Amino acid sequence: MTWKSKIAYTTAAVALALSQSVLGVNHVRLEHAERLTFDQDKLPDAQVLMDNVRFSHDGAIMTCDSAHFFQGDDSFDAFGHIRMNQGDTIRVSGEILHYDGITRHARLKGNVVMINGNTTLKTDSLDYDRNADIGYYDTGGTLYDEDNTLTSMWGEYSPRTKTAKFKNNVRLVGKTAAMQTNNLDYNTASKIAAVHGNSIIIHDEGSTVIYTEEGWFDTKNENGEITKANKIDRKDGKHLRGNVIRYDSRRGESWAMKDAVLWDDDNKTSLNGSYIYYFDGKAGENDSLKTDNKKLRLPPVGPAKGHGDGDYAEAYFRAVVKEYSGSDTLYLSADTIRMIQNEVDTAQRTGWAIGDVRMYRADIQGKCDSIIYHTQDSIAKMMGSPVIWSDSTQITGEWMEAQMGENKKIKELRVLGWAAGTMDDAKGKFNQVEGKKLTGYVKNNKLDYVIVDGNAESIYWAREEDGTMIGMNRGASSKLYVYIKDGQMERLVMTPNGSGTLYPEDQIPEDEDMLKHYSWQSEARPRTPADVNAGDVMAETEIKTSVEPAEKQSAKKAVKKKRNGKKK
């Protein structure tokens, strides 16, 4: 051994003794080094340590191949195979480390890896503040656990609180979902991610796409809430929007609140309401799962029981459905509207409208207490004081059935129990018919003729061709036919063995000018879409997002790649 080597080893031994006995626990402690030298020219203030170097400081052990120890500044630079262990919970590795014992701040570079339990953070450059217990990077990094992988240009992670923040080109890829945003918070314990700013969430390789500017998502239980500029697009052509949307992707349930709208591209319909519940038919394969209503803070209303396995939607608190498949749009409002779609044949649907039902289309209007409609037989049943208006004709009864044609417009109207038809002759008089059953036939979207069966009665105001009043004809028969032209009664035929009395206008007995069920309800007639509380139905309105289609495709591919990797 040369004299220089002897001096180096002697100096190393002295330094180790000093570090252990003089510096104390509040200072960086040199635990071990195989060699120690000095370079007064290049590093006059540093101890140059080589081979199996180990430091300790406040519960952390740091090892490396070599180091420059600045004992006076309570800091060191470490090189090669950096290992930093803090207790049994945090492990950090890298190629270069600068550690400041005064500030308890570590800066690592080169293939940096931080491991905390099941969470791993990888980056090329990491600053770790031991006081705040936060590691952060600004040159790009990846954090992953057993459920999700997150990438971003900037990020920070706290092992103690299990919280992470990410900014700039942030992507999260999970087992069934992917997110893209510029600002995301994530908890590695709860697996809850919160997004801020223009964001997109992709479910099931693009079957469902969520747009929002603010919200959170439980990646483990696959539910969440979005609260700003929200829209959910589905591959099957359905879209949901609301000021607040809560959803459970695993169960296929969504709850939209405040100016909520659900529209269906295939069936050309939209549903508006203060509150909308939507079920996409998934529950059959996840019956054991239960929605955490407490966490989602759901209102004390929900879907009707036994709605089957198909798509189901329900709107509350003054709902409006808009059907815009034809040239004339139909608006229908009610306190509650329910719609269910057949699981196999999506063209088959059933709808319910319950409570103060109002309907408007340019050629026909109506109101009742409730409606049920089946596309399978194209029949709409109106119950509870139903009224239909067409041109100057009003039809009322105990209950009604409307038979729809191929154009989704009424081609036949059946009124049962009791039935009454009233027609304003535009000159201050009302022609009337009533009986046990009334059938109205529509041609070219206008009422063409009416047949009244069973105890049929009529009041007809007869006039000369010039409009001069002849008198009132009150008749009765078992059946009568009313023929209509240009919205006015053209002719009335009673059969068989009809009877009637013609009263001059000035000789009509008291109360003989009104049949039993006469009730002209002009003031209740909806005359515009606004009269059914349609408001501004925005079925076709799109919500703009800054996320480009290419980025959307990239997120979808990432989900697919992760899913395929799991199967291997």
Give the topology:
Elements (H helix, E strand, L loop, with lengths): L2 H19 L7 E4 L2 E5 L3 E15 L2 E11 L4 E12 L3 E11 L4 E12 L2 E11 L4 E4 L3 E4 L4 E4 L1 E5 L4 E11 L3 E11 L4 E12 L4 E11 L4 E6 L1 E5 L3 E5 L1 E5 L4 E12 L4 E11 L13 H4 L15 E5 L2 E5 L6 E5 L1 E6 L7 E13 L2 E11 L4 E5 L3 E4 L2 E12 L5 E15 L5 E6 L1 E7 L2 E18 L5 E17 L2 E8 L3 E5 L45 H19 L1
Antiparallel strand pairs: 1-3, 2-3, 3-4, 4-5, 5-6, 6-7, 7-8, 8-9, 8-10, 9-12, 10-11, 11-13, 12-13, 13-14, 14-15, 15-16, 16-17, 16-18, 17-20, 18-19, 19-21, 20-21, 21-22, 22-23, 22-24, 23-26, 24-25, 25-27, 26-27, 27-28, 28-29, 28-30, 29-31, 30-31, 31-32, 32-33, 32-34, 33-35, 34-35, 35-36, ...
Flag low-confidence runs.
Answer: 1-24, 284-291, 535-552
Q: Any idea what the CATH architecture of the domain at 364-371 and 378-541 is? A: Sandwich
Kindly state the mean pLDDT as a whole number? 84
CATH topology of the domain at 364-371 and 378-541: lipopolysaccharide transport protein A fold
User: Distance between the terminal alpha carbons, to the nearest Å?
Assistant: 57 Å
